[in-house]
Fold these 2 entries.
Entry 1:
Amino acid sequence: MTQFCHDLRNLKEGLCTIDKSQQGDLSKEWKINKEIDKLVEQNNYYKGHIRKPLFDMIPLNHWVPDELHIMLRITDRLWSLVIAELTEYGLFNDTARKIIVEEMKRIKVKFQFWQIQESKTWSYTSLMGNDKIKVLQFFDLSKILSRQRANMIRNLWNKFYELYIKMKDQKTNAEEFQNDAKNWLTLFLTPSEGIPNTQGFKKGLYKPNDMTPYIHVLVHHVSEFMTIHQKWGLKSFSCSAVEKKNHQQVSYFFRKTMKDGGRKSKSSAIIEILEHENRSLFYNYHNVSLNSQKPHKIHIKAENN
Ligand SMILES: [Zn+2]
């Protein structure tokens, strides 16, 4: 077993000894340079590491970042940067939210905003992988941003989508991928030109501080893993199947809780889900026909306060 899903501590603590202040420096190359044995011997051997490694038997280069999580997390960041920009210019209002929801509807993504009562901050539907890809590919940013600004960000999103496709393609050349990923980061970090509020000012894109650990992994370590694990391709380590399962189970749970009016059950959610699955599997294997078990579509909607 060489890989694990979800935001592993490995990723937070980093695979190499890069410092946050060096994140935006594109002239440097970063390779995995931490050794798990050093961390086992001394838990705080590297800066930022405090606790005992979770999987101390696995060398760090045997841990594979999967393309799904890279896509999910980076898309989240790209989206939240757009929302932050609207907020910064005082444009994140009811009208904008309505336009966003309508645009989501156009691209067939179920999406809602709701306000958290205590903090008055706005929250929104957390999207499943497929929906995130739709947003990344098709959301028309010119509906909420100036045409010029929308084009600039759309270009960044498109290029990220291309990287995602390449990441999934076993034929992708590792060196070329690294080059493409670096070019993408250069674009992400496009600096502003001129003086704000004066003529000729050209607003850039984002700052090194806007980067996430996943962006660093995408640019510096994915190609490394491509070389190490070329035999199988990164795709064979993909977490998509596990995520799908997780979604199905969560969907079942919400459907059930809503059906019985949120009745509190004695057993925990996870046990209920597993018991339900066991029953379904039993019926399935024994060919019992169940009229009431017809699959039907369900939609999870967040409560709109
Ligand atoms: Zn690194």
Note: Residues 182 and 219 are 6 Å apart (CA to CA).
Entry 2:
Amino acid sequence: MSDKVIKAIVCPGCGELSKAEIHTSINPARDKTIRKRVLDGELFDFRCPSCGYTAKLNYPLLYNDMKNRFMVYLIPKIDRFQLCDNELENKYSNLRNINKRIVPTFNAFKEKLFIFESGLDDMAVELTKLAISQTVSKKLGNIEVNEGYLSMYDRETNTMGFTYFTGKDKEPYVQTARLEIYGKSKGIIDKFAYKDKKLKGFIKIDREWAENVLYRYKHFRHMEKVRKLNED
Ligand SMILES: [Zn+2]
């Protein structure tokens, strides 16, 4: 269901008090236009009826796509890893194997939709993105490569592409990769992040999370090497 509330808003332009319709949760299956309106950012638009001032509203929004079995909860600036909302858990307690994520930004929100609608595993995507960002950094002379997002996925040509923001000026840089890297990431996830797959509530799967998994993986590989050396 799509839930809405009416909120009183003081216009940042003229100071007049007006009302805005705010969506708290949306379901693309019930409302065919809402997916496009949320991705365009239109759902967050505020226009003051008195002076015409426009602004983007920041508010929590739950996107609920049961057909593709995921829920993405956009909570601006949330810095927690896990969110257990009893009310939500009870409401959807009959649903199993749903990917539930929290995201702190609109860009991360859009990326999650793209990933899950493409039928991909976002944990493996995040790990792949991290591994490839390191390759890009080396290729460009060790410049800083931080943020990035999945910008292309093509099963037929067996490729996926990431757009990164590089260097001080955050220049966009697109890097494509074979899906084999994604497959390998999936294998690492199954082995080193299986506990996260079973966590209750909404969790944040981002670069920081992927760094953690990569660390665990590298540590394991290192220990394996040490063990082998000792055996010889
Ligand atoms: Zn105004």
Note: The first strand starts at residue 3 and ends at 10.
